[in-house]
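Study this pair:
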Amino acid sequence: MSPGVSADGWRIYRRLLGYAGRYWYLLLAAAIGMVVEAAAAGAFTLLMRPMVDEAFVARNPEVRLALPLSVLGLFIIRGLATFATDYGMARAGRSVVRDLREALLLKYLRLPSARFDAEPVPALVSRLNYDTEQVSQASAEALKVIITDTLTIAILIAVMLSQSVRVTLAMIVVVPLIVAISGYVSRRYRRINLGIQDGVAQMAQSAEQTLAAQQEVKVYGGQAEEASRYSALANRNLYLNIKVETTRAAASSVVQFLAALALAVILFVAGREAIKGRMTAGQFVSLMTAMMALLPSLKRITNVQSAIQRGIAASERLFSVLDAPEERDTGSRPLARARGEIEFRDVRLNYPGQQRPALDGVSFIARPGTVTAVVGRSGSGKSTLVRLIPRFYEPDAGQILLDGVPLQEYRLADLRRQIALVGQKVMLFDDTVAANIAYGAQSQATPEAIRRAAEAANALEFIERLPQGFDTRIGENGALLSGGQRQRLAIARAFLKDAPILILDEATAALDSESERLVQDALAHLIPDRTTLVIAHRLSTVEHADQVLVLDQGRIVEQGTHAELLARDGLYSHLYRLQFRETEGA
């Protein structure tokens, strides 16, 4: 165990090293290289004795050629060993980083949606990028230093003992002090590095938020405020990094002072041994060479505590995600294609930290092939309701049934295959038009099927005008397309999936009149023969729904057709008249 690593830290570090176990062949090659490196360092110091005693004192001509060739051969072997060590550890370390990143991204995709509500995406990305890099340093670079330099120190001390036990024991007196300093520095590093990694995540979040809203920042004159916010986070991170470097520099200086103290002790005791005839000049030079070779190893072992503790702190953050509970998928009932009858029975849902329930006693039935519109004021629970159907969230009470079976009894992947989702905020990927339409489980769709889906979604006309047609890359989240074009690609994706349940979450709310007309026309072709749930901001778009659910503060306060609800002169009628007046005023 590295000095200063706590039992808990060692447990985390052992688990991290477990990821490197699958690359045992690389680690074995590196380990052999480390042993040879350390042995070469010891052998070189041993060569100093005959070099001085035979070549300079006894003036023996036989060693004139042998000793230089021995040194040359020794360093060739050491060079090969260093290459094996560096390559093996680097390859294993980078492989561990790759494996952790893959495991982390896969884990993110299996976490409940509530996790993404509680933690901002930049913080999640920081774990994926920054924390895994710290793990690389701890699992490869730091491990190399610990093993190589520990072996080197052990072999050099053995060499020194072979030359003079008295002198070596006098020097070893300072070793407990160096170990104590390493332990203190290690504990301090871990505390500070946890703060640094949290700070990096906060900086990433602040920067992403500012740059994503750069137009609003400019229009409302928020440049100074955002720069100040980021500057405060950057300064805190600077302060913590300076604390790390100050601790490292101070520890290194103290260790070097202790090493100088040990050197002074060696000189004193060695001088006395030489006067008494118990030490030759060659032994003294060999001892001094070993002592000078020890100093860099001692310094590196002291400094490496920072990398180890950064790695442990990063691993702790990574493992907190990897150990987090995943979406519940305990169902065993297969589902090829649902009829599409959806029933809510007294469903209640509370978000963590919220006093008022997001949904409270919601009950309704959506018959197969019908359109159910969900309307209400902002924050009334509309989006929450439809997100319970793909089980993005789990209700706290009540039941949701599909074709008379509770959702939890279906296999999660089978359930989600029954659902197509088109939202106001369309998510597209930095890929081709065709890849965005034939996404996920539909990736094997034929070009003809993709073209038919695009045509049905009124997207073919603009796709054919793109430089490479269906093979045109559209940028991050479809940055090269307009809002209406992005929405029609999302509809084409839903056409291609051909799911029996369709969820439209304010799919036309942010579109201009022309784009809305094209999207509404595409939706009119998509909706028939599916169970459709429509969250509508513009109430004029739900006039032909089979039933309208009016939500207020998480409860269904009205239910019926558009005409029935207008006749009741309740909340729906009030909202409709408000929108009608706004339209008239416009």
